[in-house]
Every structure is written in C-alpha cells, then in structure tokens.
Design brief:
Layout lengths: L1 E2 L2 E2 L7 E5 L8 H14 L3 E6 L2 H4 L21 H8 L6 H11 L2 E6 L2 H9 L5 E3 L7 H8 L5 E4 L5 H13 L5 E6 L14 H9 L2 E6 L5 H8 L4 E5 L17 H18 L8 H6 L5 E4 L14 E4 L10 H4 L22
Parallel strand pairs: 3-4, 3-10, 4-5, 6-7, 7-8, 8-9, 9-10
Antiparallel strand pairs: 1-2, 11-12
Length: 347
C-alpha cells in the first residue's frame, strides 16, 4: 500500500501522522507554523479534519446535544464545540500547499459526503475515517469509492462495527485499508489502551494496522510499534499555551520530536528475524568460552578435569569437545594458560 510517495506496511518504517485537529485555535498563521513545526519533528504527514459544525450536528440545546460525560468539553453543546474546533475550509488549499513545501504528506478526515467532494478537488492521497464515524457506513462507502487508501480508527467500535466497516470498503472495491487501534477517551487512560488488539486486528482482518493515540506522553505509540503498528497518529500542537479543545492530550514540538525518535529507536531494536551476528559482535566472540590448559602438563599426560577447563576467552577449542577429549593424552609439554587445540591431543 502507498500513501502519496510513502509505502506503508511490512519492512517499512512507521508512518507517523501529526494530527492538527483543533490545535490552530482559529488562527491560520498558527496552523501554518504548526505544519512547519511538524516537519521539524520528523513526522511523515499532517492530518486535518474537514467539517463544519452544521455538517456534524444540529445547532440545538436539547439535552441530547449537550456534552456531559466527564470529558474536557463538558458544559458545551456539540455545535458549540465543533464551531470552536473546526478548520475553515478556505484554509485547506493554503495548508496543503505549505505541507507540500515542507515535504509533508497532507490529508484529512472527511465527516460527510460534501467534505469528500471538497477534498477530492484537493487531490488528497488518503482518507481517514474518525472513530465516531466508523458507524457511518454511507460515508465510508463513499470515501472508499474514490480509490484512495482508507484509514479507520476503531475507538468506539465493537467487533461487528469493524467487520461492517471493512466489508463496506471491500464492497466498494477498495482493499487499501488501515485499521488504527484507538481508545475514544480524551485523554485515554493507559489501562484502557489494550494494545494487544493491534496484532489481532491485522490477523483477523488481513489489513495494515496502527495506533491512534489519545494518552498522555508517548510510551503508548512506542509499545504499539513493537506490536506491529505501521501507522502512528498523535495530536500535535505548536504550544500548549495557546489552549484549545485538544491541547491537553496533544504533544508539543519537543515532545513530538522525542516520540518520533523513540518510535524510530524501537524500530531499530526490532530489526528483523536474523540469527547472524554483526562484525562487531563477531569480534567479541573472542571473549566467549573455550578450552584452555589450566596447569603445566607434559607429553603423555592424560587430559583431565583438573588440567583442562572451559573458560574465557575464546581462543581454544570449542567447549563441545570437552567430554570427548577427556582421557586422551597430550602430544607435548604445555604450560598453564595456553589455549587447547587439536594438535595438542593424541587421537
């Protein structure tokens, strides 16, 4: 699978997405500088969200629309939150241009068909389906029909929701699917991450997998990487002092840079399946055990447990010969501390 010029999947490094979300605080200049900062962190991509308050919900103050669930946004209506958080559509072209200048892949999460149509005009290389839209089957079908890779967060999904979403993409003729393990809690407690689901998603659905993170810090993305995540998405903010709906669980430039480095270090540690050793390690084999003469002996003396031992370093015979050579005789006089070799032993 490929998103723009970036391959995703086996033997490829994690595709690291900096999620802009609402972290521009309604200021285009902040949005632009955030994209430039994302490039400095080592991120591969910047992701926007394409909606308006009216494409997501109704401007209504009935209890149905009020946020009251122990979140960072309690007390607001949905419409108020989304009006505060949205990225103006007239900004998108400029933000895509800035990302291109910086060498970042830019794409977005559409939240209705009009957003998909708008993003198609910008030639986005992929679509991200947000956690709370994974049940919006018509939206998934429409986005998938465009033939671009589909990234879907599973935050609120039960197993049957994931099955239906994946089936919907495939029925639309699109098998370029990435499922992101996600916990739709803001911030998300570590105990609810259940990152072992990541390899299960890959095995069960036969897709690429990753992790969309809402926890504090960045230990969770690093652990996700070790479990096979090939995409990491994390909210990114230029400076937490600007505030905003998502600031609390976003990483600033320094933190995001540290996360990218930690993920890349984890990938180095994982490496590949190999039983070969490096040249550097080969040099250290001289400090491994081998058979040495441990006391002065004369020609004709018998090899015993007292006069030969398996010790460090590794200049003598392999210890695997130890039992076989006990009871044989030395071919010459040898002083204590000499590495044992076959020429010293009578057959």
């Amino acid at each position: 699978m490929q998103i723009a010029n970036r391959k995703i999947g086996k033997e490829q490094p994690c595709f690291i997405i900096a999620e802009l979300s609402a972290n521009h605080n309604g200021d285009l200049d902040i949005a632009i500088e955030t994209i430039r900062a994302a490039k400095r962190t080592g991120a591969d991509a910047i992701k926007l969200q394409t909606y308006t308050a009216d494409t997501l919900t109704l401007d209504c103050d009935k209890d149905y629309f009020k946020i009251d669930g122990g979140t960072l946004w309690d007390g607001k209506t949905l419409h108020e939150l989304y009006k505060e958080a949205y990225t103006p559509w007239e900004w998108h072209q400029k933000l895509f241009d800035v990302a291109k200048e910086e060498g970042l892949i830019c794409f977005s999460s559409p939240f209705d068909r009009t957003a998909v149509d708008f993003l198609e005009k910008l030639n986005v290389p992929a679509y991200k389906i947000a956690s709370f839209e994974i049940q919006d089957i018509p939206l998934i079908a429409y986005a998938a029909s465009k033939g671009k890779p589909i990234i879907m967060s599973t935050g609120i999904a039960e197993e049957q929701d994931v099955v239906l979403a994946v089936e919907t993409c495939r029925k639309a003729g699109n098998d370029d699917i990435i499922l992101l393990k996600c916990t739709s809690s803001y911030p998300a407690p570590l105990a609810l991450a259940n990152l072992n689901t990541i390899p299960d998603l890959k095995d069960r659905f036969g897709v690429e997998v990753g992790f969309s993170d809402h926890t504090y810090g960045y230990i969770a993305p690093v652990v996700a990487t070790t479990l096979g995540a090939k995409v990491i998405e994390k909210h990114f903010i230029l400076n937490k002092e600007i505030g905003g709906p998502d600031a609390d669980f976003s990483l600033d430039e320094q933190e995001f840079k540290e996360m990218v480095k930690a993920v890349r270090d984890a990938e180095k540690l994982l490496g590949k399946v190999s039983y070969k050793i490096s040249e550097k390690v080969k040099k250290n084999r001289k400090f491994a055990r081998s058979l040495f003469v441990t006391e002065d002996v004369k020609e004709g003396d018998v090899l015993t447990e007292e006069n030969i031992r398996s010790i460090r370093p590794g200049y003598g015979l392999h210890p695997k010969y130890y039992v076989d050579i006990l009871g044989k005789k030395f071919t010459k006089n040898i002083t204590k501390g000499e590495p044992l070799n076959k020429n010293m032993i009578k057959n």
